[in-house]
Amino acid sequence: MKTKFIFVTGGVLSSLGKGLAAASIGALLQARGLKVTMQKLDPYINVDPGTMNPFQHGEVYVTDDGAETDLDLGHYERYLNVSMSQRNNFTSGSIYNSVITKERRGDYLGGTVQVIPHITDEIKSVILGVAQNDEDVALIEIGGTVGDIESLPFLEAIRQLRSNLGKDNVLYIHLTLVPYMRAAGELKTKPTQHSVKELRSIGIQPDIILCRSEVDLNADIKSKIALFCNVDEDAVFTARDVQSIYEVPLALYEEGVDQKIAILLRLPAKNAVLPQWKDLVDKLRHPKDEVRIAIVGKYVDLRESYKSLHEALIHGGVCHKSAVSLEYINSEEITEQNVAQKLAGIHGVLVPGGFGTRGVEGKITAIRYAREQNVPFFGICLGMQCAVIEFGRNVLELERANSQEFDPTTPNPVIYLMAEWYDHRSQCVQKRDMNCAKGGTMRLGAYPCLIKPGTMAHAAYQVESVEERHRHRYEFNAAYAQAFEQAGMLLSGVSPDNALVEIVELTGHPWFVGCQFHPEFKSRPLAPHPLFCDFIGASLAFKNKG
Ligand code: GLN
């Protein structure tokens, strides 16, 4: 079968959960036995979100091939359990970048380079290039809201694709909001009508309308929307608010969304099989226990900054049929005096990744507390580096132990910037050039890691070799390896050439693990990450021992 394309646009306002809706539809089509891939097209000018502040844009999601991408790719991977790559996320900036590169190279043979056709052709070529493994369906999510100036070239490109590929091969889904006016006790369809009008004015007639709403749309409302928006009556669906994001595939299935898509695209008429999703939702709805985890970090005000982490912790709870209640604590507010009080009633402490000095001392204080009080601790990337600094200062008594990121002249750079390292992926030596642009100096993407038997890390993974994703510049300084191990901080995961320390843990502590990589990117609701399972397991044990 030739790949069919489904385009998902959003109307009325942002934050309607377009990424989740798209990923859920992907999961439903997959459950019908189809091979599915996804792509996100973002209208902003940054070439990728790698340089964007997480306060503004939320998490930067990293793929195996080291692409720094939009956080929606995290949803795609979590719902489809398919690995995404650089080809699954493009921005206006990256599109313009390649068009301008071609122009400078003389590829356009002296022609005037314009939005239509050059930018739109480039967009079409990246869309058509997404399905490289004989996928039956490619779901393409257009970022932003219809009506934005920025997204116009993307909408023009997808409009053209319907004529290029034929109407049996292209489907448009539009997600809108149908607000419920409590005072009047009424659902309002006007914003949807306006949004679809906007879409039609640029030549796109949606085939399916998904209406995000607090309450179910009744048949009258659906037929009113169908009439005004010129779609089939059975092509208007409620995308109702649900308790957990993992209920969305089931909610859309109950509405019959995948069935309508199959009819319109002439896909094989197979029913979706969803026992795993039902089982997952059941576990989430009826937890047997509950555990309180503190996330001690800097970006606590914008939860989107820790999206994958948040989800991975929930998945860890699923391993034990336990609910996980997350408390975000701003590390800048933690002091030696108040740490016990701030972490009172907490069953596990997690220090996530981050950049820059702000809040680091508070994280170190929280880690010391977890180490000394035997509270389960999980340090990720910067969190692992802080655990190393804390151990260096308070156990090895290296008073100024630090990362060169925070104190470039420290006499004890336990975390440091390596000049070069051997990259097992490209099989060559990577050099870090301090003068390079930020992106160029980071260790990005999946790297192999060997796990030492008999460690907490091995108890979790149960294998001796794994691949995990990285996004950082600094590393554990191997010059200190022996001193750390002798004092009880075990280097339980290392690179195959033994040069890079990937996991540290404390002997004699119930559960204290730090990893240089970001395991949260590889956790799936239907396949929770082993380290998150064991961290939550240890936190439950800590809670229940009282
Ligand atoms: N700032 C640290 C580094 O660059 C950690 C990065 C991270 O936590 N992702 O190495």
Write the layout of secondary structure elements.
Blueprint: E1 4-10, H1 18-31, E2 36-42, H2 54-57, E3 61-62, E4 68-69, H3 72-80, E5 89-91, H4 92-105, H5 115-128, E6 137-142, H6 152-165, E7 170-177, E8 180-181, E9 186-187, H7 190-201, E10 208-213, H8 219-229, E11 236-240, H9 248-255, H10 257-264, H11 275-285, E12 289-297, H12 307-319, E13 322-330, H13 339-342, E14 348-351, H14 360-372, E15 377-380, H15 382-394, E16 402-403, E17 413-416, E18 420-423, E19 428-431, E20 443-451, H16 456-461, E21 465-472, E22 475-476, H17 481-487, E23 489-494, E24 501-506, E25 512-515, H18 530-545
Parallel strand pairs: 1-6, 1-7, 2-5, 2-6, 7-10, 10-11, 12-13, 12-14, 14-15, 15-25, 16-17
Antiparallel strand pairs: 3-4, 8-9, 17-22, 18-19, 20-21, 20-23, 23-24, 24-25
Bound molecules: glutamine.
Residues 353-355, 381-382, 405, 471-474 line the site of glutamine (GLN).
Could you please describe the fold and organization of this structure?
- The chain is an alpha/beta fold and 546 residues long.
- Helix 14 packs across helix 15.
- The relative contact order is 0.11.
- 35% of the residues lie in helices and 23% in strands.
- The model is unreliable at 434-439 (pLDDT under 50).
- A hairpin with a 4-residue loop joins strand 18 and strand 19.
- It has two domains: 4-280, 3-Layer(aba) Sandwich (Rossmann fold); 288-416 and 474-545, Class I glutamine amidotransferase (GATase) domain (Rossmann fold).
- Strands 13-12-14-15-25-24-23-20-21 form a nine-stranded mixed sheet, with helices on both faces. A seven-stranded parallel sheet has the order 5-2-6-1-7-10-11, sandwiched between helices. A three-stranded mixed sheet has the order 16-17-22, covered by helices on one side.
- Bound molecules: glutamine (GLN).
